[in-house]
Amino acid sequence: xxxxxYVIEMDRMLAFADAVTAIAITLLALEIHVxxxxxxxxxxxxxxxxxxxxLAYLVGFVLVGxxxxxxxxxxxxxxxLDRAMVRLEFALLAVIAFLPFTARLMSEHGGAPxxxxxxxxxxxLEAALLAVMALRLRAPGPLRRPEVTRQQVAREVFDNAxxxxxxLVALLIALAAPLVAVWWWVLIWPVRGLPRYWPWLRAxx
Length: 205
Description:
Blueprint: H1 10-30, H2 43-75, H3 83-109, H4 113-135, H5 150-174, H6 178-184, H7 188-192, H8 194-197, H9 199-204
């Protein structure tokens, strides 16, 4: 008997993904520790020491939230999950669960090339996984909702593939100049807006 290629309901997978995302965000917050027995006069100084961790939490929160939104946006195009898509989903969730570590690494060693490379690599990997998942929806079949067009799917592929490409270049830059790699991410907004202003690309997306 052939194995059923459709192994889990969409709602259950989304619920599991939401739980992993919530735990990842909670772990980000748990990295911020207020020293016990701190006198009132030293609160300001203590907060100054905690500021890198607070900033890492905020950046991590925005990043995890963006992944969560992109994930739900992709799932709205899908009708069901097959085994290959489930494997990609678990790989994506593994990256999300890893993000608190990358945020802590950045808060404590932000100037180190390896810290920036690991952080950037995690972002690029999650974008690449979302792009591959979207790419699997381009072929007609049961994975894609009937009302979803190829142009909608192509836009998802383009958005995530562009982020993955920017991340790859940022990773290479980070190994030599970590602070320059941070500014490289500014390219996300103009690159993702290309289909709006470039008729040739818009016609294909």
